[in-house]
Specification:
The chain is α/β, with parallel strands linked by helices and 297 residues long. It has helices at residues 18-29, 46-57, 105-113, 128-140, 152-157, 159-165, 176-186, 193-201, 250-262, 268-282; strands at residues 37-43, 61-67, 74-80, 83-89, 116-120, 144-148, 171-175, 213-218, 221-227, 230-234. The strands form 3 sheets. It has a 6-stranded mixed β-sheet with strand order 5-6-7-8-9-10, sandwiched between helices. A two-stranded parallel sheet has the order 1-2.
Length: 297
C-alpha cells in the first residue's frame, strides 16, 4: 500500500458499530449532552485512552469495562471508490464480562434509567447473556429494545443465540444482504425484501404491547420498513457518486439518526428521514466522522 494513500483518522475516527451509533445520536441531538450511555470493552492502553477521550468529546456517556488481557480493538479500512474492505483486530471487544461490568449496581442503574436500547448483533458473539438480561428488562418494563442483524455470519453461525433474543426485539435493523441471509437461514422461502420484512415482523414476540418494526436499508435504493400492517419504501437522499468519499459507518449513522428522533418520540417516517440524513453526511467524509453540527430540519 502506498504510504501517501493512507489516511489515519486520529482519535477513534474509524469508530465502527454501536459506539458510532451512540456518537451519531449525540451529534443529531446536540443538547442536552450525554443523552446516551454506551457500554463496551477496551484495553488499558493508548487506543483505549483515545476512545474514552473521543467519546467524551462527542458527548457520549461511555462506561467501558477495562481489562489488560487484550489490547483495545482496532480496524483498518481499505477504500476503493465507493467500495470498502475492513480488516479488524477485535481483541478487547471480545472480552466483555457480564459479571464484571453489566451486573455491577452502578452500571445496572444506568441501564434501568434508559428508555430506548440498542445492541448490535455483533455482540452475540461475545456476551449473549448480557443481551438477554437487558432485553428482558426492556420487555418487562414496556420500553423499546432495538437490535441490528449486523452481518450475514451472525444469522448463519450465531442463529440460536439470535433467535433467543429475537422475541424481545421491538425494532430490527439490517441491510439487504443481512436480510436475505436471515431469511434463508429461517427458511422463509422468499428473496423479496418486502416479504422478508413482513415475515420478520410476525416472528414470535414477548411484549405484545408493541408491534415489531423492521427496517432494512439498501444502500442507494429505498429503505424498506414495516408501518403497521404494511411494508413501505422510503427513498434515500440523492447524492452524486463523485461526492461519496467513504461508506464506512453509513449503516451505523443511519441507525444513530433514526434513534435520535425515536428518543424524541417522533413518528417512524421522521426517524427514517433522520437516518437517511445522517448516513448521507457520513459517506461524504473520511472515516466515521461528523461535522460540528447537523443541518437537519
Amino acid at each position: 500500500m502506498v504510504r501517501d494513500q493512507v489516511e489515519v483518522v486520529r482519535g477513534g475516527g474509524r469508530r465502527l458499530g454501536a459506539d458510532e451509533v451512540a456518537v451519531a445520536v449525540a451529534w443529531m441531538i446536540q443538547k442536552p449532552h450525554k443523552v446516551g450511555t454506551f457500554f463496551g470493552c477496551i484495553g488499558t492502553d493508548h487506543f483505549g485512552h483515545i476512545l474514552k477521550q473521543k467519546a467524551d468529546e462527542a458527548h457520549v456517556d461511555a462506561h467501558y469495562y477495562e481489562q489488560s488481557a487484550q489490547p483495545t480493538g482496532t480496524c483498518a479500512a481499505c477504500i476503493t471508490g465507493d467500495n470498502r474492505s475492513l480488516v479488524a483486530n477485535l481483541a478487547a471487544a471480545n472480552c466483555y464480562k457480564k459479571e464484571k461490568h453489566l451486573d455491577m449496581d452502578s452500571n445496572w442503574e444506568l441501564v434501568q434509567k434508559a428508555k430506548v436500547y440498542y445492541i448490535a448483533g455483533f455482540f452475540l458473539t461475545v456476551s449473549p447473556e448480557s443481551i438477554l438480561k437487558v432485553a428482558k428488562h426492556v420487555s418487562d418494563n414496556n420500553k423499546i429494545f432495538c437490535m441490528n442483524l449486523s452481518a450475514p455470519f451472525i444469522s448463519q453461525f450465531f442463529k440460536d443465540d439470535l433467535m433467543k433474543v429475537m422475541p424481545y426485539v421491538d425494532i430490527l435493523f439490517g441491510n439487504e444482504t443481512e436480510a436475505a441471509t436471515f431469511a434463508a437461514e429461517q427458511g422463509f422461502k422468499t428473496k423479496d425484501i418486502d416479504e422478508i420484512a413482513s415475515l420478520c415482523q410476525d416472528l414470535p414476540k414477548e411484549n405484545q404491547k408493541r408491534r415489531r418494526v423492521v427496517v432494512f436499508t439498501q444502500g442507494k435504493d429505498p429503505t424498506v420498513a414495516t408501518v403497521g400492517d404494511k411494508v413501505t419504501r422510503f427513498p434515500v437522499v440523492d447524492i452524486d457518486q463523485n461526492d461519496i468519499v467513504d461508506t464506512n459507518g453509513a449503516g451505523d449513522a443511519f441507525v444513530g439518526g433514526f434513534l435520535s428522533q425515536l428518543v424524541l418520540e417522533q413518528p417512524l417516517e421522521e426517524c427514517i428521514r433522520a437516518g437517511h440524513y445522517a448516513a448521507n453526511v457520513i459517506i461524504q467524509r473520511v472515516g466515521c466522522t461528523f461535522p460540528k453540527e447537523p443541518d437537519f430540519h
